[in-house]
Structure formats: structure tokens, C-alpha cells
Specification:
The complex is a heterodimer of chains A (about 800) and B (about 290). Chain A has about 800 residues and is α+β, with helices and mostly antiparallel strands. Chain A is built from 30 helices and 18 strands. Chain A is globular, with a radius of gyration of 36 Å. In chain B, strands 1, 2, 3, 4, 5, 6, 7, 8 and 9 form a nine-stranded mixed β-sheet that branches. The chains are: A alpha+beta (about 800), B alpha+beta (about 290). At the A-B interface, helix 8 of A face strand 4, strand 6 and strand 7 of B. Chain A: This is Glycine--tRNA ligase beta subunit. Chain A: It is found in: Cytoplasm.
């Protein structure tokens, strides 16, 4: 068994690419070895800015002989098939063997020396290496076929045991020599093999193991801060990045002028981190300290005094620039800045950012006034929404886009906005990911929801839904954000209702712009007189584009109006709700909630109050994991299978309920608050109530099944099941009505013993068609009763 | 410092050129870089180029941000295998002590949307300050660089601040008789920042942009790529001024950049067309 060392030395590899490069190198080598039939043993990989290295331990000296059989056509197959096979294998007919009437191509490959395998593997790996960005260089780049590498490749060390693995890539020949630290030991050093690689480099001021460099940076930076009576603000990303920029890391502590601490701490931290890759420190009281830690790549002769002085100078210039932006921004009120949003296109079909802000403001106010978000002042919600995006045009956010929201919060606070408002401006982008803090301050929740709901409704309206891996407008994140906000504040809210509202605002505000065109205004007035319905007029706008006189530049706007309208007329919103269901499943998976159970509850339809829905899912999950639940599920599945086999059909399929969109589609478009028509609200509630409970009663033939008169005599187990259903059904229904899902499950649980007994003692498939019919009907009734709680057919297992 | 760099690169085979007499945002715009990066002919040159970046103006308030400053530009085609060592040698020559200063090559992929050009390389840090842009050109004017040129762009003021150990660019000694950089340029920064941001007449700038675009096309029609390229440089600078005046919206910005890029690409294309017979004859292995 022998160890193999490979070092690919180049000019400086970007820090951010080093982790993946190690993984790719290992993967490629393992694959190359596997092709030769060698199982890779232990592999370690290293990166420094200037080298990508690998040590594979315990490789065999040679590969085993390989016998390969390729199956060909039958010996009775037509001649062409055989010819094709010979072409494919490159053999002659005499070289094939006939095994039971089938041609086989058998090749014997003798074992190869591993060194030889490696010598061939290295150039292959280098040429196939998947750098995220690579380049050509030097004389060879006269041809576009020349070798590509992340930066110019300088040398290859390849040693198997003590022996050179001799190979060549694009004129670079493998050898024993590498170089040490660029400044401390720039001379060539000779490596003996895997055994002395790390130590030889260490003597030449290179710590080849990135984990060791990271540890040095982490520990030393922390210690420097502690020596100064401060606490380092930890940042693993920075640790890794600095380790990727140094071969001999030397952390150093520097200071900056205390005067800069007037600039928001986040700005200082960000400019130090992003532009300079410095750590920052906290004072004992938690405030930001005027100190930073940079990581040099040399052990300077003067102990680092000049390096510290230089870095201090750079940071001072950066902070001076940040202060310039901050002070300039503070001079302009946010409402002035917000006017500039009229010049920023949000999306060509969705207007400017100012348009989006207008929709957000309406929606945020509505969310509060409707009582969906409780405990907020509607005026605050609207105000915060109007200021929320103003910081996008400030100098500071222009320089540091990641400070969006945060800077708006600072500026809003500075101009004396109420706490609720500036906090909402600051936090309205949150949550931006699964781990992110979820706001619960009511005004913030309203603005954040309004922002995200508008994004979701608008992009679905113009058919820019996320597909597969593509989600350019971050719709998934917006949906996840809405879900998190709803759970975070336990909001009672119907997803389709709020999306309906978001679409309506998109419709109304764009319609307002559209009727600035005299053509559309006239059409609108004329048709309103006829139809007495303001917004139905525009439903068929598209069909009327042919009408003489429609200004060409208004047509895209008319399209947008129609796009929004399509959202709340018809079935578009159900697609969005389905999308929410999918995101909910993904999101809840981590919390251990089974996706099939979410499906089972969603499948009932009508329920899009996520808090209530999840409560039901939780109760269901608790139930199906008990013995009772599992048995009931088994009984249900058996019943469902029988019904399916018998081709049982419920007397009436559930009638599609008129959607609330259709029923509530007649709000006036131009009133200030047209959405709050009491009728509409009532319709929604009624409709939702209908939707909650699957229509089982009327279509089920359970009346027949349990009808005493003229019915065939029941067997005891049959009678017991009927009795159990008679009792369980109203209990379950009442429990669901009271949102007591545990109670509903408990009611269902009482069915378990009667069902088990029924299957044990009663033959469904009775010779008497009446009995058979009645028993099937009973099973159907049982199924329907279970469906009151969830669609058990979606449950796995 | 400039003389030392001239000596250093001259000894290494570079022709020493003078600055191009036009306003430009970076030395890369100098035709000795852009147009010479095209084609197979070896080309080694070094020169100083004054640069104007209107949006970087700070009214003379920032210690190292200026709307007018100097770059030292070296272009070596094809890129030599020891380019990093050559570069470090030049730093040593102008007095950077690498035993006490921390020199680092930090990833910075260069892209010029207005030139249709990109390359990979680094910004070179000296004690955390970017002092040089180090790039291996991969494309210029939308065409693959065959062979690749190495480009070094030194920030002369920043390097001088290191060597003279001053905190503000305005404190740099311009000579040994007490004249500072501030004496020479501070008032210029204040006035030009004001003009760039507040005063420049935007109507005449828009007009100038249109005229340079038209003149570029006119030159292209006459198969004069160098003249066309000059107009592209002018259009680019006018665009930068319009940006500083804040009259180009985000949506329009891309359209303007696209127009300048089309001009630059057109000039590169025309230069290639013009030179191809000569290149083919001298470098049979070369192809576009």
C-alpha cells in the first residue's frame, strides 16, 4: 500500500472557490481510480491561495486484472446486428464467444501499475476540472483550445510513494519541486512525498491545511480582541475567506477614529467585512468598538506596525466615504427620496417601484383595517409602507445594497417617524430565509406581508411563476416569508382572500392609470352606463383592442390591468394556494411534519387558513402515529379499496363550489376603500364555511344504509358500525366546527373497533345484492366520515 | 516614481508611450491597450494615463477618492509566465518593502461593459489598500484575446501615499520644494466635482452623446477604426458625465451602456477586419 501526493500550484485561487475545488479534486480522482478498478482509500485535500493538493493514502501498487464481458446479439440474430456489435466493440467475429446462443465480447485487461494510472489521470483531471470561472494565458493562448485553469497553472508535484508520477499538462511537467511562501521563502523546495509534504511546506512558511489556518485566525483574532479588553464579533465566513487569502496568516489589531462611531454600526461592520475582510469588535457594553482585526500573510520584520498603519488608513478612507453617504442621505427626507422611485422600473409589466409602493400602502392599510393584523394603527401601516422602499435611492444603499431596509430604518428614525413606523421600514424585508428572525410587531407584519403578497400576486398575474430551479423574482422566498409571518403572529387569515385583495389593488391602481387615456375613459364611461358594473367593462378589453383609436402605448397597461383581473376571476388563485401548500410542505418538513398529512388536509379543499390547517395536520399526525390511528387508517384503506374495486361511486360528486372570487367580484374600482364592502365579506365567510366541510351528507347514500324500513337485517357487527358512525359523525363535525381537531380525531378513533369487527365478521360481497349494496354504502359512509377530518387516501403507509 | 517604472518596464522590453490626449475612465481605454489587445502580434507597452471618473468626485473631501487621477498602465502580450514576479519586482523598484508590507492578490474579475471586455485577475492589496489591478484579458470588444494579454494598472497616487507614508492624497509631496498634491489639484477637485455633479449642461451633453455616436458610425463607414474608437471614448466619457448629473434612470442606463459597447465593438471589429490579412500572413496559426 502506497500514498500518493498531488499538488497543483497556480497563481492565487479565489478564496471563495477553494472549498469546492477540494471536493471536486477528490471526486475526480476517485472517479479516475474507479475507472481503473482502484478503490480510493483515505483521501485528504488541501488548499492555499496558491495550491490545490491531495493526499490519497493506501493505494495498491497495481490494479487487478480485469475481465470484461459485453453481451451482444443472439447468435440467431440477423447479420446486421452482429456487424453492429463488432463495430461497437472493435473486435472480429473470431474474438467473440458463443455462450448459450448469445455472442459475448470478452476482454481481459491485465493489471496496470497504479503510477501509470495516476500519470494518465492527472492530465485528465486538470483538463476536466470544473472551475466556476477559468481562463487562458500565455503563449499557448494564441489558440482558444489552450488549457484553462482558474488562474495560470505553474507547477505539478505528483509523487507515488517516493517515486515521481511522470506526466505533463500543457507543457507543465510533474516534478518533486514546489515553492514556499511568496515572500518568506520564495525559493524552490523539494518534496519527498505525501509523508513530508505538510512539514516541508511549514518550514517554508506555508500552512497547507486550511483548517489549521482557520483555527489560527479564529484563535489569534479572538485573543487580540481580548487583550484589548474587547470581544471579537465572530464571523466564520470571514475566517474561511482570510484563510483562503493567506498561506501564513498573522492576525493584527488596528484602530479607527472614534468619531466614525456616529455612523451606524452595521455600516461600519459591513464596510470592514465586505471591502476589507476585517473582523470588528465589541466593547464590554455591547456597543461597537473602534477596533478591527485584519489578517496579514507575512510575519513582518517590524512586528506588523506598518501593516497596521496602512490598514488603518484604508479603513479610515472607507469610513469617511460611508459617513459622506450617511450625512448626505440624512439631508433628504424619505418622502423626497420616495419620489425618485417613480424612475426605477420594478418590472416592465408591473410598473415602477413607486407603483409597487402604492399597492403595498393600500394593502398594508387594508390588512390592519380588516383586523387580519391586529394591534396596529392603519395610518402607521400605510406610512411605513410608503417609506419602506425610499432608501433604495439613497447613496448608502447604492453603495451597499445589502443595507436596504436597515438604512431606511435609520433615516426614518432620524426624521422623527414613530417607532412603529421606522421599525417597520427597517424590518419589512424580513424574514429573508428559514433561519431569519420573523417580525411580530404588528405594523411591521402588515408592511412585510403587503410587500410579499403584492410580489406574489403580481408575478403570478403576469405569469412569472417560479419553475423548477428558476425563480428570478424570489417568489418562493416571498411565499415562505408570508407563511412564516402568519405562523409567527398566529394570524387568522385566508390566503386566497388576501391574495384576492392584493390582485384587486393591482387591478384598480393600474386601471386608474389606464383611464388617463381619453380612449379608455370614454369606453369605461360608456360601458359603465350599460353594464352598471364598473370593472366588468374591462374584462374583454383584449378582445376590443381592435377598436379604432386605442393608443398603442396604452396596450401594455391594458394587458396588466387584465392580468391582475384574471387573478381574482376564475381559478388563478387556487394555483397560488397550491403553491403555498407546496412551500408549506417543504417548510414543515424540517419541523418533522409529514408532507402527506398536509396533502391529506389540503385535499379537502376550502381550508386556506394556515394556522388552522396546521393545527389539524398536527392533530392528524399525533393520531395516525398511535395504534388506533394506524388501525383506523388500515380499515379506511381496506374500505376504500373495496369501494374502488366495486366501482362504487358516490351518488353525487361534490359540486364545484362557486368560488368566492366569482361571487365577490363586483366591488367598485374607484372608491378609496372599495374592498371593504360588507356584502363581499359576508359572501366570503359563507363560502368558506361551505368549503370547510366536504359535502358528504347529501350525496352519501347513508340514509339508505341506515334506513330501518325495508332494509335487510343487519348483522351485529354491521349494526355496531352503524351505531358507532351515528355517534361519531356529529361529534367529529362539532369538534371541527369548534376547531378542536384532537376531539375530532378522538371521535374517529371510536370507529376503529367497529370497523375491525365489521371486516372480521361481515362479508361485504354478499350474494344478496341488497345486502351487498347496503354494506358498500356503509363503507362509503365510513369513508365520508373520515374525510370530514382529512383525506386519508393521501396518507402514506 | 514614474521614471523608475519607465526604466523598469523599458528594461523588460516595453515601449514607453505618452498619455492619450482624451478624457477616459481608465488606462484600459487607451487604444494602446484596447486595440492592441486584439490580434496575434506581440505588444509590450507602458504609459501613464490620466483618468476621469466624474462619479468618484468628493469635492476634495475624501483622502483618497478623486474624480481625476493617474494610472500607470503596463500591457504585455502574450502574458509572460512570470508576470507576478515581474510585477512584484516593479513594486520593489519603487520602494515597497515586502518584508514590512503585506502584499496580497485578492480575486477581482474585471469587466468593462462599455468595452465588451472581461478578464480574470486580482486587485493587488498593499496593507489592505488596492494599489494595482492585475488582469489577464480574455475578451476585448466581444472577441477572444488570442493570445491573452496581461494588464497591470497601478494607482499612482495610492502607491505614492504608501511610499511617502501620508494619510491623505493631498499631503503627497509633488516635489522636494514643498509643493503638495493638494497645491496642484485640490482646487481642481472642488471645481470639477461641482461641475460634474451640479453644473454641467445636460442638454448639451445629451446632444454631444448623439453627435459622437453619429461620428463613430461615420468613421466606421469610412473604415477608420481608430477614429471610430476615439468617438467611442468620447461617448463613454459623456455618458459618465450624464450619470454624475443623475439624469440617466436605471432603466436607461443599460441602454446607454449598450450603445457605447456597440460603438467599441464596432471599432474593434473594423480594426480586426483591417488587420486580418497582415495577421494571417505573419501568424498562420492564428484565427479569430
Amino acid at each position: 500500500m502506497t500514498d500518493f501526493l498531488l499538488e497543483l500550484r497556480s497563481e492565487e485561487i479565489p478564496a471563495r472557490m477553494q472549498d469546492r475545488a477540494r471536493a471536486d479534486l477528490e471526486k475526480l480522482l476517485v472517479a479516475e481510480l474507479a475507472k481503473a478498478g482502484i478503490a480510493a482509500g483515505e483521501i485528504v485535500t488541501y488548499t492555499t491561495p496558491r495550491r490545490l493538493a491531495l493526499i490519497a493514502r493506501g493505494l495498491p501498487e497495481a490494479t487487478e486484472a480485469v475481465r470484461e464481458e459485453v453481451k451482444g446479439p443472439r447468435t440467431s440474430a440477423p447479420e446486421q446486428a452482429l456487424e453492429g456489435f463488432l463495430r461497437k466493440t472493435g473486435l472480429t467475429r473470431e474474438q467473440l464467444t458463443d455462450q448459450n446462443g448469445v455472442w459475448f465480447a470478452v476482454t481481459e485487461k491485465p493489471g496496470r501499475a497504479t503510477a501509470e494510472v495516476l500519470a494518465a489521470a492527472i492530465p485528465a483531471i486538470v483538463r476536466a476540472f470544473p472551475w466556476p470561472k477559468s481562463m487562458r494565458w500565455g503563449d499557448a493562448s494564441l489558440s482558444s483550445e489552450s488549457l484553462r485553469w482558474v488562474r495560470p497553472l505553474q507547477g505539478i508535484v505528483a509523487i507515488f510513494g517516493q517515486d515521481l508520477v511522470s506526466c505533463e499538462v500543457a507543457g507543465i511537467e510533474s516534478g518533486f519541486a514546489t515553492v514556499g511562501h511568496r515572500f518568506h521563502s520564495p525559493h524552490a523546495i523539494t518534496i519527498g512525498g505525501a509523508h513530508d509534504y505538510a512539514e516541508k511546506l511549514r518550514l517554508a512558511h506555508v500552512i497547507v491545511d486550511q483548517d489549521e489556518r482557520r483555527a489560527i485566525i479564529r484563535d489569534r483574532a479572538g485573543a487580540l480582541a481580548a487583550e484589548a479588553g474587547l470581544t471579537l464579533i465572530e464571523d466564520e465566513g470571514l475566517v474561511a475567506e482570510n484563510a483562503g487569502l493567506t498561506e501564513w496568516p498573522v492576525p493584527l489589531l488596528g484602530r479607527f477614529d472614534e468619531g466614525f462611531l456616529d455612523v451606524p454600526a452595521e455600516v461600519i461592520q459591513l464596510t470592514a467585512r465586505v471591502n476589507q475582510k476585517y473582523f470588528v469588535c465589541e466593547q464590554p457594553d455591547g456597543g461597537l468598538a473602534n477596533a478591527f482585526v485584519c489578517v496579514a500573510n507575512i510575519e513582518a520584520k517590524d512586528g506588523g506596525a506598518k501593516i497596521i498603519a496602512g490598514n488603518q488608513k484604508v479603513l479610515a478612507a472607507r469610513l469617511s466615504d460611508a459617513r459622506f453617504f450617511y450625512e448626505t442621505d440624512l439631508k433628504v427626507p424619505l418622502e423626497e427620496q420616495a419620489k425618485k422611485l417613480e424612475k426605477i422600473v420594478f418590472h416592465e409589466k408591473l410598473g415602477t417601484v413607486a407603483d409597487k409602493v402604492e399597492r403595498m400602502a393600500k394593502l398594508a392599510r387594508w390588512l390592519v383595517e380588516e383586523g387580519i393584523v391586529k394591534g396596529a394603527d392603519p395610518a402607521h401601516a400605510e406610512r411605513a409602507a410608503r417609506l419602506a422602499k425610499a432608501d433604495l435611492v439613497t447613496g448608502m444603499v447604492g453603495e451597499f445594497p445589502e443595507l436596504q431596509g436597515l438604512m431606511g430604518g435609520y433615516y426614518a428614525k432620524a426624521q422623527g417617524e414613530p417607532t412603529e413606523v421606522w421599525e417597520a421600514v427597517r424590518d419589512h424585508y424580513k424574514p429573508v430565509g428559514q433561519g431569519d428572525e420573523v417580525p411580530t410587531a404588528p405594523v411591521t407584519v402588515a408592511v412585510s406581508l403587503a410587500d410579499k403578497l403584492d410580489t406574489i400576486a403580481s408575478f403570478f398575474a403576469i405569469d412569472e411563476k417560479p419553475t423548477g430551479s428558476k425563480d428570478p423574482f424570489a417568489i418562493r422566498r416571498a411565499v415562505n416569508g408570508v407563511i412564516q409571518l402568519i405562523f409567527g403572529s398566529s394570524l387568522t387569515v385566508s390566503i386566497s382572500q388576501v391574495l384576492d385583495q392584493a390582485s384587486r389593488w393591482g387591478y384598480r391602481l393600474n386601471l386608474l392609470k389606464l383611464i388617463e387615456y381619453p380612449f379608455w375613459l370614454e369606453l369605461h364611461v360608456r360601458s359603465s352606463a350599460q353594464a352598471k358594473q364598473d370593472d366588468t367593462v374591462f374584462r374583454d378589453l383584449k378582445a376590443r383592442y381592435g377598436v379604432d383609436g386605442a393608443p398603442v402605448d396604452s396596450l401594455p397597461l391594458a394587458d396588466t390591468v387584465l392580468s391582475y383581473q384574471r387573478m381574482y376571476i376564475g381559478d388563478e388563485l387556487t394555483k397560488v394556494v397550491d403553491f403555498f401548500a407546496d412551500r408549506l410542505k417543504v417548510q414543515q418538513r424540517e419541523a418533522g411534519v409529514r408532507h402527506d398529512l398536509i396533502d391529506a388536509v389540503f385535499a379537502l379543499g376550502g381550508e386556506d387558513d394556515l394556522v388552522r390547517l396546521l393545527a389539524r395536520v398536527h392533530a392528524l399526525q399525533a393520531f395516525v402515529t398511535t395504534g388506533e390511528g394506524a388501525n383506523l387508517l388500515a380499515g379506511y384503506k381496506r374500505a376504500a379499496n373495496i369501494l374502488k374495486k366495486e366501482g362504487w361511486r358516490d351518488a353525487a360528486a361534490p359540486a364545484p363550489t362557486p368560488t368566492m372570487r366569482e361571487m365577490a367580484d363586483h366591488s367598485a374600482p374607484f372608491g378609496e376603500e372599495p374592498s371593504r364592502l360588507p356584502e363581499e365579506r359576508r359572501v366570503i365567510e359563507v363560502d368558506l364555511a361551505n368549503g370547510h366541510i366536504p359535502q358528504t351528507g347529501e350525496e352519501d347514500p347513508l340514509a339508505e344504509a341506515s334506513a330501518p324500513a325495508g332494509a335487510p337485517a343487519h348483522e351485529p357487527a354491521e349494526a355496531a358500525l352503524i351505531a358507532a358512525l351515528d355517534e361519531a359523525e356529529p361529534r367529529a363535525a362539532a369538534a371541527i366546527e369548534a376547531e378542536d381537531f384532537e376531539g375530532a380525531m378522538a371521535a374517529l378513533a371510536t370507529l376503529r373497533a367497529p370497523i375491525d369487527a365489521f371486516f372480521e365478521q361481515v362479508t361485504v360481497n354478499d350474494a344478496d345484492p341488497a345486502k351487498r349494496q347496503a354494506r358498500l354504502a356503509l363503507l362509503a359512509r365510513m369513508r365520508a366520515a373520515v374525510h370530514r377530518v382529512a383525506d386519508f387516501s393521501k396518507i402514506e403507509g | 516614481m514614474i521614471l523608475t517604472l519607465h526604466d523598469y518596464w523599458s528594461e523588460r522590453g516595453c515601449v514607453i508611450l505618452q498619455p492619450y490626449d482624451m478624457e477616459m475612465g481608465a488606462g484600459t481605454f487607451h487604444p494602446a491597450t484596447t486595440l492592441r489587445a486584439l490580434g496575434p502580434e506581440p505588444w509590450n507597452a507602458a504609459f501613464v494615463q490620466p483618468c476621469r471618473r466624474p462619479t468618484d468626485g468628493r469635492y476634495g473631501e475624501n483622502p483618497n477618492r478623486l474624480q481625476h487621477y493617474y494610472q500607470y498602465q503596463v500591457i504585455l502580450k502574450p502574458s509572460p509566465p512570470d508576470l507576478q514576479e515581474l510585477y512584484l519586482g516593479s513594486l520593489a523598484a519603487i520602494g515597497v518593502d515586502m518584508a514590512t508590507h503585506d502584499i496580497r492578490f485578492v480575486e477581482d474579475d474585471w469587466e468593462s461593459p462599455t468595452l465588451g471586455a472581461w478578464g480574470l485577475g486580482w486587485e493587488v492589496w498593499c496593507d489592505g489598500m488596492e494599489v494595482t489591478q492585475f488582469t489577464y484579458f480574455q475578451q476585448m470588444g466581444g472577441f477572444d484575446c488570442k493570445p491573452v494579454a496581461g494588464e497591470l494598472t497601478y494607482g499612482l497616487e495610492r502607491l505614492a501615499m504608501y511610499i511617502q507614508n501620508v494619510d491623505s492624497v493631498y499631503d503627497l509631496a509633488f516635489n522636494d520644494a514643498g509643493v503638495t498634491y493638494g497645491d496642484v489639484y485640490h482646487e481642481n477637485e472642488v471645481q470639477m466635482s461641482t461641475w460634474n455633479f451640479e453644473v454641467a449642461n445636460t442638454d448639451s451633453l445629451f446632444d454631444a452623446f448623439r453627435k459622437h455616436v453619429a461620428e463613430c458610425e461615420n468613421s466606421l463607414n469610412a473604415a477608420l477604426p481608430i477614429a471610430a474608437y476615439e468617438q467611442a471614448i468620447k461617448a463613454s466619457h459623456v455618458f459618465n458625465l450624464l450619470q454624475a448629473r443623475g439624469v440617466i434612470s436605471v432603466a436607461e442606463r443599460q441602454a446607454y451602456i449598450g450603445r457605447v459597447r456597440d460603438l467599441a465593438k464596432g471599432a474593434c471589429r473594423a480594426q480586426i477586419d483591417k488587420m486580418t490579412p497582415q495577421w494571417r500572413a505573419n501568424f498562420p496559426e492564428w484565427s479569430l
